[in-house]
Design brief:
With 110 residues, the chain is of the alpha+beta class. The protein has one domain. The protein contains four helices and eight strands, in the order ββαββαβββαβα. The strands form four sheets. It has a two-stranded antiparallel ribbon with strand order 1-2. A hairpin with a 5-residue loop joins strand 6 and strand 7. The longest helix is centred in the middle third of the chain and has 11 residues. The two termini are 23 Å apart.
Length: 110
């Protein structure tokens, strides 16, 4: 993963983000709630791919231009790669997911 939330007011993108073509989320991206999560996603320059979030009550995340359930990435040699990501459902008991509901990853990627 190329980014991480470092505190509730400051969001940084770390690592070699110019190397990555997409990213998913982990439990720590939810540590400070949806406002900080939104700020984090907005700062990324790659698609954020998470297939198993119910964002009905969190449209501020769902409507972000780089947030997707899946993405197809064209490579320089003409090949295309499909990417899906998911968050483990037990994240709901480990982090502050707010109104975001994490659903079964198996059902989401079928």
């Amino acid at each position: 993963m190329c980014g991480m939330v470092v505190d509730k007011d400051i969001t940084q993108v770390q690592g070699h983000s110019n190397v990555f073509l997409s990213q998913t989320l982990g439990n720590h991206e939810f540590d400070f709630g949806t406002k900080t999560l939104k700020s984090f996603i907005e700062k990324l320059k790659v698609p954020v791919v998470v297939s198993n979030l119910n964002l009905t009550e969190a449209p501020e995340i769902e409507n972000l231009s780089n947030f997707r359930k899946s993405v197809v990435i064209p490579l320089s040699d003409g090949m295309r790669v499909g990417v899906v990501g998911y968050v483990l459902p037990d994240t709901m008991s480990q982090a502050s997911t707010g109104k975001i509901v994490i659903t079964s990853e198996i059902e989401a990627i079928k």
